[in-house]
Amino acid sequence: MIEKQQGIAWFTICRPTRRNAIDYTVMDELHEAIELAEQDDEVKVLVITGAGEDAFCAGGDLQVFHQLKTKEEAYAMLAKMGNILYRLLTLPKPTVALINGIAVGGGCELATACDFRFARAGARLGFVQANLAITTGWGGATMLFEKMAYDKALHLLLQAQTITAEEAERIGFVHRTFHHSLREQCEKEMSGYTNKSTHVLRAYKEAATKRWKTEEFRRRFFAEIEQCAHLWESEEHEQAVQSFLAKRNK
C-alpha cells in the first residue's frame, strides 16, 4: 500500500497474516513505490514499514519461494528483488525503514537498503539466512559491509541470531528506537528533511550513492546473489527449510 502525506511517501507491506513476508506481489508494489518516490517531486522521503504491530518483514515467503528448486529458478527470484533493492539503495531521495516489529532474513536486507533505520523498542532483528544453509540473497551482505563496521556486520551475518532493536542501535544498525507512536516519531525525525528543496535532497543523495553506482560495486552485489542461488539448490538448504517448516507448523 502506497500513500503520500506531507512530503513523505509511505509504503506499507500489507501481509500481516504472513508476518509481512515478501512475495512477488510485494516486490512489484515496492518497485512502484520506488518509481513514485523517484519521479514525484512532491515526495521528499520514502518510508517503508509493515502492517500491524508484530512484524516489519519476515523476509521472503517460504511458502511461495520454496517451490523454487534449481539455482536458475532461485536466481530469477533473487535477482528480481536484488534489482529492486539496488534501486532503493541508490534512490536519489532519503529513505527510511520504520521497523515496527520483527525483521528477519530478507526483512533485514530490505532495511539495510534504506538510509535510516528506526525501530520499535523491543523489536527483534536478525540476518538468519545462515540457519537455512544459504547466504543473504538480495545483496544484503554487500550493503551491510558498506554501512557498518566490518566486525559487527560479519558477526551479525555469521551468528544468524536475532537481537533487540536496542542492541541493534548500540552496534549501529538501527539509528533510533521509539517506544510509542512510531509513525508520528518518524514524521518528526524527517521534518527537517521534508522542509528542504527536493533538488537539494537529490543532490546530496546522488553524491552519497555515487560510490554504489560503479561497475565494481554492482559486480560484488550480484555475485552475492549468484552465490545464494548456488546454495539454494543444495540438499543442505532443502533439509534446513523442511526442518524449519515442520517446527513452525507444529
Protein described:
With 250 residues, this protein is of the alpha/beta class. The protein has a single domain (2-181), classed as 2-enoyl-CoA Hydratase, Chain A, domain 1 (Alpha-Beta Complex). It has eleven helices and ten strands. The strands form two sheets. Strands 1-2-3-5-7-10 form a six-stranded mixed β-sheet, with helices on both faces. Strands 4-6-8-9 form a four-stranded mixed β-sheet. Helix 1 (24-39) packs parallel to helix 3 (71-89), helix 3 packs parallel to helix 4 (106-113) and helix 5 (140-147) packs antiparallel against helix 6.
Overall number of structural domains = 1
Provide the helix percentage. Answer: 40-55%
> What can be said about the biggest beta sheet?
6 strands, mixed
Extract low-pLDDT stretches: none
State mean pLDDT (0 to 100 scale): 96
Query: Quick one: how many beta strands?
Result: 10
Please tell me the CATH architecture by its name: Alpha-Beta Complex
Label the overall shape.
globular
CATH homologous superfamily heading: 2-enoyl-CoA Hydratase, Chain A, domain 1
- Would you state the CATH class? Alpha Beta
State the CATH topology: 2-enoyl-CoA Hydratase, Chain A, domain 1
Q: How much of the polypeptide forms β-strand, as a percent range?
A: 15-25%
Structure classification: alpha/beta
Question: What key attributes describe this structure?
Answer:
4-stranded mixed β-sheet; alpha/beta; 2-enoyl-CoA Hydratase, Chain A, domain 1
